[in-house]
Amino acid sequence: MTFSFWLINAISQALLVGFLVCLAGFDGNRTVEAGIGVNWGDTARQPLPPEIVVRLLQSNNISRVKLFDTKPSVLEALAGTGIEVMIAAPNNLLSRLGGADGEAAAVNWVAQNLTKYLDLNGESVNIKYVAVGNEPFWGENNKTYGHLAFPALTNIQNAIRGAGLEGRVFATIPLSADVVEGKLDPSAGVFRSDIASLMKKIVSSYNRTGSPLVINMYPFLSIVWTPHFPPGYAFFGEHDKTDSLSNLTYTSMFDEMFDLTVAAVKRAGFPRLKIIVGEVGWPTDGIRLANLSNAQKFNNQLLKHLASNSGTPLRPNVTIDAYLFSLLDENVKDLLGGSAPYERHWGIFYQDGTPKYPIDLSGHGESSSWPQAAVGVKYLPRRYCIETPLFAPDPVLLGKRIDFSCAHSDCTALGEGGSCSPLNDSMKASYAFNIYYQFNYQQDSYCNYTTFGAVVTEDPSTETCKFPLGLDYGGCNRGPQVTMKLSLFVLFTFCLSFFFF
Ligand SMILES: *[C@@H]1O[C@H](CO)[C@@H](O)[C@H](O)[C@H]1NC(C)=O
Ligand SMILES: *[C@@H]1O[C@H](CO)[C@@H](O)[C@H](O)[C@H]1NC(C)=O
Ligand SMILES: *[C@@H]1O[C@H](CO)[C@@H](O)[C@H](O)[C@H]1NC(C)=O
Ligand SMILES: *[C@@H]1O[C@H](CO)[C@@H](O)[C@H](O)[C@H]1NC(C)=O
Ligand SMILES: *[C@@H]1O[C@H](CO)[C@@H](O)[C@H](O)[C@H]1NC(C)=O
Ligand SMILES: *[C@@H]1O[C@H](CO)[C@@H](O)[C@H](O)[C@H]1NC(C)=O
Ligand SMILES: *[C@@H]1O[C@H](CO)[C@@H](O)[C@H](O)[C@H]1NC(C)=O
Ligand SMILES: *[C@@H]1O[C@H](CO)[C@@H](O)[C@H](O)[C@H]1NC(C)=O
Ligand SMILES: *[C@@H]1O[C@H](CO)[C@@H](O)[C@H](O)[C@H]1NC(C)=O
């Protein structure tokens, strides 16, 4: 035990020395230009391969990404690109990182999930931040993760220092907007009373380590959840509000949310603490307000606001760093018990990497220009499943078939106010059958007359409702084509090949 511990220590010391030598030779002058960052999640059936997503980032000059974990394939694709990265230890690791053996767990985590990627065969992933958990104090999360987040943060901070990375890699807990209160006047912002003393310790540790506070802001959710919320105030410059304490004028909910946080960190004793917006964006489907024109308008206004460097009333002329939520749609994301059908539609790109609407990501130019689409995407063949026009099925059975298809795919576009909700019943059934068929890699048994479906080659999409075509990725998730031993064997070797290539 002691010996192997010593050995591991000696090896890691040697690696560290090697790493520092590499650092010395690293081109310190390479500066990544500021600009918008994006959140890159992949809670998707048939997710795009990381190499394609990285090229998508590069072709659109996106130089900062925020991840939700540390998938080796994603980090390997980012190596050598210079793209600045926030990696994450997800909530389900907090009990380990913030528990009894948290110190040692954090040292291991940092070695395996951080330092390792700073030198991958001579190429480096430009990791600047480590997110510890995700919104651990939000709603129900607080019960499970609230008490673990700060110990986990401290252990990761110490492990980062132990690895000699202090001042280069910064640990922070991405927060939900409900950690601050004082909603009538932004200048009255304070940390939520039940976690106020905890937040004070957290921001104090940020001040010591040079980390930013990272907080998510969703004017879209204000408009959805707050009765009588003035719609124009979710956007920029359409509705004014005066802070009755400071007399400052606010023209957007975004500025108000930011200044609420500015006021809270000031009251906690750190008036100059850097604040980064971890997530901000607007979804395009699932409910009425989530549509293409609102998302285009909000995101373009936001990008212009950020690029202007005009700051907010409490921090005028200060650059705000933000990460758009999100890069891509994620069609198996959790819908919070069905209450949030828009959750799968936050992307500025559809899941296949095609842009949804014109948007100027630099914030400096024309908001009528289209971003670059992903290149080299492999689609399944042009085949769609529709409700069979050949006979009229029993409506009860048909209804069951639709429910089943939806329960095993993604029918959020069919929900009230969704992009496919205006279709007639037969088209709605086709939508459900098709997305289920695509989710299952167009296997015959997922669309046949027994299931009231028929395969067609003509795209059934309408002007507003897009029938997705599946992507030829994520092979290991495929169900067996036919229950024959041979095909299982083929599938098995196919999946095995992923381990070796
Ligand atoms: C990316 O930046 C380069 C160089 O500044 C510019 O020529 C190009 O048009 C930009 N591309 C996009 C999609 O903004
Ligand atoms: C590294 O991160 C992955 C993914 O979150 C996790 O499964 C793994 O346990 C981590 N490694 C250590 C040593 O904690
Ligand atoms: C949230 O978690 C913190 C830390 O465990 C705890 O002190 C606080 O009381 C919790 N808040 C609520 C509303 O349960
Ligand atoms: C920490 O806060 C103090 C007091 O506001 C400030 O003087 C100091 O510069 C801060 N340190 C960092 C690293 O920001
Ligand atoms: C805000 O404006 C009111 C009325 O114009 C004035 O009485 C008050 O002193 C002002 N407060 C501040 C903080 O400037
Ligand atoms: C999106 O919703 C807004 C109302 O919030 C409406 O005015 C607009 O026409 C809708 N756009 C589309 C493309 O449906
Ligand atoms: C912010 O910049 C504007 C325009 O450059 C200037 O008029 C204003 O005085 C500046 N405000 C502060 C507080 O520096
Ligand atoms: C439903 O809509 C489709 C396309 O919009 C149309 O071709 C079809 O005839 C309609 N079916 C019924 C039963 O109205
Ligand atoms: C049609 O679908 C049913 C139900 O999934 C399946 O049992 C049957 O084998 C399929 N038929 C063909 C010809 O694929």
UniProtKB/TrEMBL annotation:
The chain crosses the membrane at residues 6-26. SUPFAM superfamilies: (Trans)glycosidases. Pfam families: Glyco_hydro_17 (PF00332), X8 (PF07983). GO terms for molecular function: hydrolase activity, acting on glycosyl bonds. InterPro entries: GH (IPR017853), Glyco_hydro_17 (IPR000490), Glyco_hydro_17_plant (IPR044965), X8 (IPR012946). Residues 383-467 form the X8 domain. Keywords: Disulfide bond, Glycosidase, Hydrolase, Membrane, Signal, Transmembrane, Transmembrane helix. Belongs to the glycosyl hydrolase 17 family. This is X8 domain-containing protein. It comes from Riccia fluitans.
